[in-house]
């Protein structure tokens, strides 16, 4: 049985921060416990297993980004370009810390690792609906809005990957600005 509550939430955030800085690789539950100042028994109590912990890390990272997008799309007066430009600023700033963890977990989802399986369901589909709705609000037909949403998601993640590998965030920012000007209604 896994524990719940504020202590669990704080511990999860500590683990996310540790993994953001050091990566997952093949780190054991004991190594994660030591690095986060807890015991492996507490991690097992709260998360059930290493895979359970990593599943929760995936959920926490995705939930944070989805909450940021939801907050930005909640303003009915904001147009698609404004929302995506503001979201890009938020995501690219966070990517400097959490991007390597995000891409490591994404690669593990591609490899079929159990703890990252949830990403197969949450990495793209939940993003298309809010972005698609935003683009429909900007005047695109529903099918075109969904396709354009997928384009923006894929391009943004590609630019983040590029910037994380090369360190060229200014160039990635410029490319994203060009993309939003070309692909999104005002």
Automatic annotation (TrEMBL):
Keyword DNA-binding tagged: yes
Stretches assigned to the HTH tetR-type domain: 5-65
Residue ranges: DNA binding: 28-47
PROSITE patterns: HTH_TETR_2
SUPFAM superfamilies: Homeodomain-like (SSF46689)
Protein name: TetR/AcrR family transcriptional regulator
Record's keyword terms, sorted: DNA-binding
Keyword hit for DNA-binding: yes
One Pfam family from the record: TetR_N
Record field: transmembrane: none
């Amino acid at each position: 049985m896994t524990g719940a509550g504020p202590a669990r939430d704080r511990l999860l955030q500590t683990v996310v921060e540790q993994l953001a800085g050091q990566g997952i690789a093949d780190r054991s539950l004991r190594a994660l416990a030591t690095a986060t100042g807890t015991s492996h028994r507490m991690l097992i109590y709260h998360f059930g297993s290493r895979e359970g912990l990593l599943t929760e890390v995936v959920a926490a990272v995705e939930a944070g980004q989805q909450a940021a997008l939801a907050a930005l799309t909640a303003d009915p007066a904001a147009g698609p370009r404004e929302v995506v430009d503001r979201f890009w600023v938020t995501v690219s700033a966070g990517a400097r810390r959490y991007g390597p963890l995000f891409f490591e977990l994404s690669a593990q989802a591609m490899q079929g690792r159990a703890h990252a399986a949830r990403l197969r369901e949450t990495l793209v589909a939940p993003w298309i609906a809010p972005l698609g709705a935003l683009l429909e609000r900007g005047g695109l037909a529903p099918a075109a809005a969904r396709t354009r949403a997928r384009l923006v998601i894929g391009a943004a993640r590609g630019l983040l990957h590029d910037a994380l590998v090369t360190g060229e965030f200014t160039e990635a920012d410029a490319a994203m600005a060009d993309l939003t000007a070309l692909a999104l209604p005002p």
